[in-house]
Amino acid sequence: MAVASGSLTVLGSSGGFPISGFACSGYLARIAGQSLLLDCGPGIAGALIGADAKAGIDGVVISHLHSDHVLDLIPLGYALMTEWLTDGRTQPVPLYLPPGGLEFLQSFSDLFGHRNWRFTEEGRNAGYQALGAALARGRDWLLTVFDAREYEPGEDIAFGTTTIATFPVDHRVPTAAMRLRLGAMDFVYSADTRFLPALGHFAAGTDLFLVDAHFSGPKAPGGLHMTPADAGRLAAIAKAKRLVLCHLGAPEDGASARQTAAAHFDGEIHVAFDTREYRL
Ligand SMILES: [Zn+2]
């Protein structure tokens, strides 16, 4: 049987805040013709949406509710709303959020939504009519263009024909690492977390292990993130084929981060930078 194609594109991997040329966290997984966005930090909407103004995504999974992983849900929502209004789109994009996500999205909607808008022109397309009907019911556009639901870290998420396994990591707020197949390639994303040997076991044997290496230096202060050395140790536990260091607090230190990780892991090591694509 032919294996469906798949790939992973780094749209942004900067830590904490975007800098010129480096958006915050956002990774585009392509699986059997479907596109799934993992995290949506500042800069991701611009990295994702092409000149045709189409987002081209079939689903979004958010690892946790920190601003550097979610803020661009607003501009992404605007792009989707435009698809409804101008192209007649009526299908919301599934959006999987960790616990508290629905309330969080509601507060986004309260802050940035436009529940007082009314779309009442006759003869416009089906998307315009559907959005107008939702607003008339008091449902904001943001909660209409996304079909938002919560998942519990540790629970599987069904997306099309793919299952996304999630794993609860430790980042002081509910946060999930994720494991999924991208065609022939197995892929694990650590999300943000302190060093947890159990995460290495969750990632056992993976082809591509994308690991938070936010802090440089020998120790991760406060236990919120890992260092490149931690990432190397974790990839060694997992016996991963390829380690990709991401979420670096100082992306310009990529070469030294790679060198530090290499002292703990003898497989292939990359430093994620924006728009890098991985395939098997
Ligand atoms: Zn975080």
TrEMBL record:
Domain Metallo-beta-lactamase: start-end pairs: 23-247
Entry superkingdom: Bacteria
SMART domains: Lactamase_B
Pfam families: Lactamase_B_2
GO molecular function, one term: 3'-tRNA processing endoribonuclease activity
InterPro entries tied to this protein: Metallo-B-lactamas, RibonucZ/Hydroxyglut_hydro
Cited PANTHER family: METALLO-HYDROLASE YHFI-RELATED (PTHR46018:SF4), ZINC PHOSPHODIESTERASE ELAC PROTEIN 1 (PTHR46018)
Name of the protein: Ribonuclease BN (tRNA processing enzyme)
Organism: Rhizobium lusitanum
